[in-house]
Write a structure and sequence with these properties.
173 residues; Arc Repressor Mutant, subunit A; three-stranded antiparallel sheet; 21% strand
C-alpha cells in the first residue's frame, strides 16, 4: 500500500513522532540514499504530511500531526508494527487476548499499549473516575497520558487497541 522507501522515511518518525530531524539523519536512520530521502520528503511536504523549518543553516523536518491523512497512514503503519511484533514473537500471543479482557474489566478504555522496554501494559481510559489500581498494568486517563508521553514509551510501544486513538492523542498533546 505504501511504497517501501516512503514507508522507511515514515518509519523514522514512528519511533520519534514528536522529534524533528535533518535530511541526512532521516536518510541514515531509514537506510536509503540522501537523494531518495530528499525526493520523498518533498513529496510529503507537498501533501502537507511534514513541516520544515530552517535552523543553523539546516532544514529540519517533523510530522504535521494536524494532517488527517497522515494520521490515518500512521495508524496503518501502527497496525503493521503490531502484526510484525506478534509474527516475530509468537510467545507474546497472549497479549492479543489481554485487550479484550481489559476492555471487559475496566470501563471507558480508550487504548491499550504494550511497553516493550518495561514489559508492562498501559491502559488509557477516558475519564479519571475509570482509573483503577492494578499491580499488573498501568492505568491512566487520557489527560494523564498526554501529559506523560514518555520518550521510552514512544520508541518501545506496541499499540494493542485503538491505533488511531494513539495518534490522535499525539496530535493533541
Amino acid at each position: 500500500m505504501i511504497p517501501k522507501g516512503r514507508k522507511k522515511v515514515l518509519g523514522v518518525f514512528m519511533d520519534s513522532p514528536l522529534d524533528e530531524f535533518h535530511l541526512r539523519e532521516i536518510s541514515r536512520r531509514a537506510g536509503i540514499s540522501v537523494n531518495n530521502t530528499h525526493r520523498y520528503l518533498n513529496q510529503f511536504l507537498d501533501k502537507g504530511f511534514f513541516r520544515a523549518r530552517e535552523r543553523d543553516n539546516r532544514k529540519l523536518f517533523r510530522l504535521n500531526l494536524e494532517n488527517e491523512f497522515l494520521l490515518k497512514m500512521m495508524e496503518y503503519l501502527e497496525v503493521e508494527r503490531r502484526d510484525d511484533f506478534f509474527r516475530k514473537r509468537p510467545e507474546m500471543g497472549r497479549l492479543r487476548g489481554v485487550t479484550g479482557e481489559v476492555r471487559e474489566a475496566i470501563k471507558g478504555v480508550v487504548m491499550v499499549v504494550f511497553d516493550r522496554e518495561r514489559g508492562d501494559v498501559l491502559v488509557v481510559v477516558n475519564e479519571k473516575e475509570h482509573v483503577v489500581e492494578s499491580r499488573v498494568m498501568r492505568v491512566m486517563d487520557v489527560k494523564g497520558f498526554k501529559k506523560s508521553l514518555e520518550e521510552n514509551l514512544l520508541k518501545n510501544r506496541v499499540v494493542l487497541y485503538n491505533e488511531f486513538g494513539f495518534w490522535r492523542a499525539l496530535s493533541e498533546s
